[in-house]
């Protein structure tokens, strides 16, 4: 009897991580418009202030139950994509390793200040790999 209970408990516990790994988070179920790579000393409260959102929203977007438990190198969704986010005639671009905002603007023939404004970027030197940028067309500038 004890072995049967132990076997059932063990099987249930072993299956639990598989179930958790297969359950999509809120951010995975939706499209993330902007991500942030967590740096040393950052927390959800400061990130919420920086991206003009709330700690609760960041928790929901990233499936975080404890707002005190984020780690350096973690990629967080800080803004959910909305079909209305892309201006008429605009396109999306995913920031690649080594990209600079000035080079992206030059590549697409847009003004860097306009590109920064459209994407709510306050510091043009701080873009992140995986970040989704909206590239406005020339008529929006």
Q: What portion of residues is helical? A: 25-40%
- End-to-end Cα distance: 74 Å
Q: How much strand content do the residues show?
A: 5-15%
Shape: elongated
Low-confidence stretches: 13-30
Order of helices and strands: HHEHHEEHHE
From the 3D structure, determine the CATH topology of the domain at 86-135.
Membrane-bound Lytic Murein Transglycosylase D, Chain A
- Average pLDDT taken over every residue: 76
Q: Architecture of the domain at 86-135, CATH level 2?
A: Roll
**Biggest sheet architecture:** 2 strands, antiparallel
Give the strand order, joined by hyphens, for the main sheet.
Answer: 1-2
Number of helices: 6
CATH class of the domain at 86-135: Alpha Beta
CATH superfamily of the domain at 86-135: LysM domain
- Helix/strand/pairing class, anyone? alpha+beta
Radius of gyration: 20 Å
- The counted number of beta strands is 4
Description:
This protein is α+β, with helices and mostly antiparallel strands and 141 residues long. The chain has a domain at 86-135: LysM domain (Membrane-bound Lytic Murein Transglycosylase D, Chain A, Roll), CATH 3.10.350.10. Helices cover 39% and strands 14% of the residues. It contains 6 helices and 4 strands, in the order H-H-E-H-H-E-E-H-H-E. A two-stranded antiparallel ribbon has the order 1-2. The longest helix is centred in the first third of the chain and has 21 residues, at 2-22. The protein starts with a helix and ends in a 6-residue tail after the last strand.
């Amino acid at each position: 009897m004890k072995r049967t209970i132990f076997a059932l408990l063990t099987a249930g516990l072993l299956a639990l991580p598989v179930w958790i790994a297969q359950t999509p988070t809120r951010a995975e179920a939706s499209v993330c418009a902007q991500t942030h790579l967590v740096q040393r000393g950052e927390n959800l409260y400061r990130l919420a202030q920086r991206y003009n959102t709330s700690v609760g929203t960041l928790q929901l977007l990233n499936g975080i139950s404890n707002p005190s438990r984020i780690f350096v190198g973690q990629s967080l969704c800080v803004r959910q994509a909305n079909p209305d986010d892309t201006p008429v005639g605009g396109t999306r671009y995913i920031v690649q390793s080594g990209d600079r905002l000035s080079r992206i603007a030059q590549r697409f023939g847009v003004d860097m200040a306009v590109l920064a404004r459209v994407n709510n970027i306050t510091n043009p030197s701080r873009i992140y790999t995986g970040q989704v940028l909206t590239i406005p067309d020339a008529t929006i500038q």
